[in-house]
Amino acid sequence: MEASNKVNRWLNLPDVGEIRDLCDGVGICALFALYCSNDLKVEEISVPEPGDTLTIYDSITNHSLVQKLCDDLFPEPIYHLCVTDFLYIHGCMKQNILCFLVDLFVHLEINPILRVNRLTHVPIRVEL
């Protein structure tokens, strides 16, 4: 029963198609749960029920997890935003959020930090 609950939890994660889909923090938390599963369990993420949206409190909780993980795991600060920047994504913040996502990509895929779960990390080979 517990394994089935974990699978259902992953299946309930909403898709991220646009930058505004990051406002609830679920997608970014899911990245940490996948890449750094020893530091964040999927059970810790506030996930909406299918068809529902998260409350502001749950969204703040998710982004606070992201902020704490960024502060604890990465050698330099990459979370240069505040939680409300994600909650109320404004057009002028789009570039800052994209830069944050690029930093995450670099630290999780290109040059993975030590805490990245090596079983889920598949190195990308780029030939120039």
UniProtKB/TrEMBL annotation:
Look up the record and report any one GO term of the cellular component aspect.
microtubule minus-end
GO BP terms: cytoplasmic microtubule organization; negative regulation of microtubule depolymerization
Q: Which Pfam families match?
A: CAMSAP_CH
Q: Name one GO molecular function term.
A: microtubule minus-end binding
Give residue ranges for domain CASAMP second calponin-homology.
13-89
Q: Which InterPro entries does the entry link to?
A: CAMSAP (IPR032940), CH_CAMSAP_2 (IPR022613)
Protein name in UniProt: Calmodulin-regulated spectrin-associated protein 3
Q: Organism, per UniProt?
A: Orchesella cincta (Springtail)
